[in-house]
Amino acid sequence: MPLSRPITIVTHPHCLAHDTGGGEHPETPGRLTALLARLQASPLRDRLTMVEPRKAERRWLTTFHDEHYLFRLEECALSGKTHLDHPDNQLCFDSYEAALLSAGAGLTGIDLLEGEENLVFCAVRPPGHHAESNLALGFCFLNNCVLAARYWQQQYGRRKILVIDFDAHHGNGIQSAFEEDPEVFYLSLHEHPTFSFPGSGYAEETGTGPGRGATLNIPLPPGADDQMVLNAWSKRVEPALAAFAPERIIVAAGFDAHRDDDMSGLAYSTEIYGKFGEYLAGWADQFCQGKLLSILEGGYHLESLADSAATYLTALSNHNNITKSRHPGESRGPEELPGAKDTGSESQQGLAYLRPTPE
Ligand SMILES: [Zn+2]
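# zinc ion complex -> structure
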């Protein structure tokens, strides 16, 4: 039995106390329950260490969020209001603390990664990638990935950070944070904004000012499947990443592009998340001494979320074995990606229907 690499899961029971108002809302505590139960029932179980996060301190929250917004969020939760900024963003009394713990998970994870650990997955909610500096959006209150990137830079002096986002939706908040910043590369694969929430993430959005060229949006048409995303991965993602050569990688790990998840029109299989895991672990080995931080974003079909996350983490854990079974020390070229072949113009495929409501 080959040895596989251990994974640290950063999670906290209080993330379950973030109540979004009952069964009508897709961002439920059951998402985490299903994901964690699936991990505990999988062969991965023996390789997992569970760690509780600290709450993100104010000084780290304000590396992105406005003070006024933070007071508004806290007041909204503690005063018994049911949503912030839009009815999508349901919250309860416990939501502020849950949001602090979710944001803190990335920070705790980075502390571990700067020590002995190599692979950290933050199984937390509420998610974060839609949250703006002064606005709650798309079930997100604090931008967990943005705060993690700032922490890595300012606490540990890591300058070049890649944030790669394979959630079905564009991470508008991550892009906003870093669009002028040449040291944080934001790379997102998502359903085309013409058809999908939040309506940003066009290919033309490539960063501004000194950050021009450090944002890469790869919109995929509704119906895009494994073949199409692998094609984009080999042709667009791999060259961009190789050119940027990050010191550290943060993954905005959303699983709502799965074909069973009706939150997007994308149609990935469960297995594609294993490919993502394999490739990301390879990049981490090549550029980042194996260090990789993943933070849960979306994923609303409970069974697919659980299976996809388990598949992703299994691939991360097994990556050493995969590498050894190839040629030790040899980096992978884009042409080697299985299933990677030209499927024609992405923009002209699968645009047969409009999705009426994004979230
Ligand atoms: Zn999403």
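# post-check
The domain at 7-348 is CATH 3.40.800.20 (Arginase; Chain A).
Residues 51 and 348 are 45 Å apart (CA to CA).
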